[in-house]
Description:
Layout: E1 5-9, E2 12-16, H1 23-27, E3 35-37, E4 44-49, E5 52-59, E6 62-66, H2 70-80, H3 87-94, H4 101-106, H5 117-127, H6 132-146, E7 149-152, E8 155-158, H7 163-167, H8 171-176, H9 182-202, H10 210-216, H11 220-224, H12 228-235, H13 243-253, H14 264-274, H15 281-292, H16 296-310
Antiparallel strand pairs: 1-2, 2-6, 3-4, 4-5, 5-6, 7-8
Helix pairs in contact: 5-9, 5-13, 9-10, 12-13, 14-16
Amino acid sequence: xxxxxxxxxxxxxxxxxxxxxxxxxxxxxxxxxxxxxxxxxxxxxxxxxxxxxxxxxxxxxxxxxxxxxxxxxxxxxxxxxxxxxxxxxxxxxxxxxxxxxxxxxxxxxxxxxxxxxxxxxxxxxxxxxxxxxxxxxxxxxxxxxxxxxxxxxxxxxxxxxxxxxxxxxxxxxxxxxxxxxxxxxxxxxxxxxxxxxxxxxxxxxxxxxxxxxxxxxxxxxxxxxxxxxxxxxxxxxxxxxxxxxxxxxxxxxxxxxxxxxxxxxxxxxxxxxxxxxxxxxxxxxxxxxxxxxxxxxxxxxxxxxxxxxxxxxxxxxxx
Length: 319
């Protein structure tokens, strides 16, 4: 456990003496899009997770989780924040690499969230060739139109829609939300995920047709349980999902810590630190996975955060 004890509050819980936890680094390292800073210090964030509005406040070494109960924390949010994992051990292993040591120290409070696979899949389909403000706005619009309303402190928020709710959306409706060409991918993916979850219930009642069994293979619970490479291939079958999006879904929602998503900032970090070939992203990914093994995903987050916050540049950009 990366915290000493839990204190029950009237409006939430407090985790005392938490290690390796900083809200800004967790919520702004490219893994999530529904957390918003509430102050200039960036130690207080508000997020919409699992149908709840949650506030996270860091006060010295204590973390306040407001808007949830002890039961909510034990059943979901402890795993969501990956608080049962010893990040000191992970950072100790990664610091043995003298090149990575600087990035690990800089992102000392990063933790990899365990998010909902469906929301993560749709969010990262939307992220392809897109800017973070536009990704956030797209997710907000999807949630506003198809999600359930949540009341919190006199304000109304919207949960991310269920597969069933989003499966009712047409491509035209999604395009009207400003999602562009990604609307077609999101519409088809939502329908596949919902049909697969529906057929999981049907299989107990009747024999499925070969076509239905094919659709059943799109069930995200089934995909999550596959070994990493099989999981990757299964995710790549969804419309609009390439290797980078699949790696993101595996790392940020399925617990596949050997995944190594390569985006523009990770590419810069890999060239900057390791001198990898900037035009070969598959080779860059393979190099990192071979070098860091099951810790590749953690290394990716430290590298991403360092590269973006430091705004590092690589030789091809300096010409």
